[in-house]
Amino acid sequence: MNPPPQTPAQRPAPRDPAPETDVLGTPETRLRTAGAPLGSTGASVPAPAAGVAGADNPFAATPFERTKRRRLKWNRWMMFGFCIILIVPLVAILADIFIKAAPVLSLDYLWANPENKGKGGGIWAPLVGTFYLVIGSLFFVAPIGILAAIYLNEYAKEGWLNRTIGITVTSLAGVPSIVHGLFGLGAFVLTMLPAINGALGLTSHKLEAGLLTASLTIAVMNLPVVITSTREALGAVPQAFREACWNLGATRWQTIRTIVLPNSFSGILTGIILVVSRAAGETAPILFTGVTFFKFVADEGLAKIFPYHPGEPFMAMSMHLNIISNQISRLPENMKYGSAAVLIALILFINSFAIVLRVWLRGRKRW
Amino acid sequence: MSGTKATPKKAFNFFDAVEKPTEWLIRLCGWSSIIGIAAIFLFIFKEAAPMVPRLDWFHLFTSSRWIPNPAPGNEASFGALALLVGTFTTTFIGLVVAVPVGLGAAIYISEFATGKMKETLKIVIELLAAIPSIVWGFIGLMVLGPLVSQIFSAEPESVWSHIMVTLHLASSDTGAAQGTNLLTGGVILALMSVPLIVSLSEDALRAVPDTFREAALALGANPWETVRRVLLPAARNGLLAACMLGMGRAVGETMAVLLATGHSNRIPLALTDPVRTLTATIAAEMGETVHGDDHYRVLFILGIVLFVITCGINVASDFIVKGVKKANQA
């Protein structure tokens, strides 16, 4: 995501929206015609071209030039307007959410468990559930995604296989989140869990849909994101680095381990952080694969920090917001806005952190 | 690569020792996305399979009678026409808003904005893309919905009510029945897909070689003419692919439309009629089904329909982009 180099094409831009020409024309037109042979622009000759504005002033812009300039000005403002109508209302909406949430937001709100279907108390139980969901999905997706990207960038040769993998990564990225949820239900909850239960011979404490299945589902969903971002980071390492290492007699794997990975670490890390924010916000994939609206969580002790067994349903922020915002009647508005504000703040914080990290590391880059 | 000659004694290095297994592991992981796509199709199909031969497919796509839970005198009927129409109308409204805004913003960021302004806009767009869909749904339900129902409400017999009914802005003369409806859902989808469209379009515009811009400027074109006559035609396919991916995202979006479209299984006749989409139906009804019954399997079939639609969109856009790269290389 490096900014494109300042192109020559962009340089004239600030100069161009010159004010509508005065009698003498813009400084530019004057400059342009100054070196021209006298008479060639009709300076001393009465202008024969009837269409030219201000026949007594040879330096005035023609109507054509003025139309061009006006179009440029209007279109530039219109496109700037698009950016503004995209951003300003949204900032207003977010500000509104935070203002309405302000009365309930406090450390106690984060630390207390929900009471009475979310009508009172805080959001500790769903918050900690989201935390473990993120950790769990990273545990599965980070190694597989990074290795897959290494394969695609360092090992695979151009050919039908590489191209097929590229297409499947794109398609996987485009699969709707609810379809991932159906997949998780079919593959992990209904196929994998009975198999594990059977293999372990569990009869009483069978594993149910829970953190494990939900993490796996989220991991599959985020796989293409990790692959794409890691591949970009690996691709940014100059080829000369690799060649130098090979020339010293290192094998491919040694090169990857000692040269490529250390030099692309920051890019990989940024991608992983973005996946964290995606995993924290998703609802649809975990709807049928382990999340629940209410699960008892102890109010103190170690059980408050580690409340969920991987094989039992758990609570998550996104699901909590989903249910309290439209399925619980007579729920105080503040509580809804509070949950929404915490989720938004969490996501924006993680993403800002990734952006700051990226900018900082880009500044330190030495090639 | 692998040295066969006897080398002088070397210190044992764990990472060198595992080179071969690691390479195989890397190869296997390289296949993970293929395995993932195949597994998704396989497992969804496996759950849907018993219903596939029994389902009246013609009925599914042509009827809007969606009665999943049969009651006496009200036999089960799986007609998903209204759901399909709901999905495509919300997507259409979303795109009508998102495409001009997204392309305009992308052109501004890529060609006109400079320095601090450019960086700021890019970061804000990136942050917008990160907001989760459930939050968008919440915004639609709590903020945009009330606004829409306020704007589209009128006294019966008033001028505004006549205008609304004539232009199909609302189906009753008192205006929108509820704040969560087709329009709200469409606008929310637009807001969600705009960041994607902007970032992909910006990539497409940046991929146009600078020599194109320089040539246009040298011929006397001003920046807007360069954009209109040179950059837009040159980046056409990339921009089209960006819009298609935005469409794919809008079609597959679940939680936002679940909260913001009103959840009513009817074919919308006016802009502010509540609708219901394929995705929202699956999300809302899967919890009520009995594992293995017809309703459960039909929801998986809807999942296959969605999967096929979005995969089609994505693969098509991929081919469009690849086609450009080849043409540029030639």
Keywords, please?
heterodimer, A: 367 residues, mainly alpha, MetI-like fold, 2 domains, two-stranded antiparallel ribbon, 12 helices, B: 330 residues, two-stranded antiparallel sheet, 15 helices
Describe, in short, the structure shown.
The complex is a heterodimer of chains A (367) and B (330). With 367 residues, chain A is mainly α. Helices cover 63% and strands 1% of the residues of chain A.
Helical content band of chain B: 55-70%
Note the beta-strand portion of chain B. under 5%
Largest sheet of chain A: 2 strands, antiparallel
CATH architecture of the largest domain in chain A: Orthogonal Bundle
Span of the ends, CA to CA of chain A? 16 Å
**DSSP helix count of chain A?**
12
What is the arithmetic mean of pLDDT of chain A? 82
Outline the secondary-structure elements.
The complex is a heterodimer of chains A (367) and B (330).
Chain A (H helix, E strand, L loop, with lengths): L26 H8 L28 H39 L5 H5 L2 E2 L4 E2 L2 H32 L4 H15 L2 H24 L10 H25 L3 H9 L4 H30 L20 H4 L11 H10 L6 H32 L3
Antiparallel strand pairs in A: 1-2
Chain B lengths: L13 H4 L1 H12 L1 H17 L8 H6 L3 E2 L9 E2 L2 H32 L2 H16 L2 H19 L7 H8 L15 H25 L3 H9 L4 H12 L1 H17 L2 H6 L17 H8 L8 H36 L1
Antiparallel strand pairs in B: 1-2
Helix pairs in contact in B: 3-15, 5-9, 5-12, 6-9, 7-9, 9-12, 10-11, 12-15, 14-15
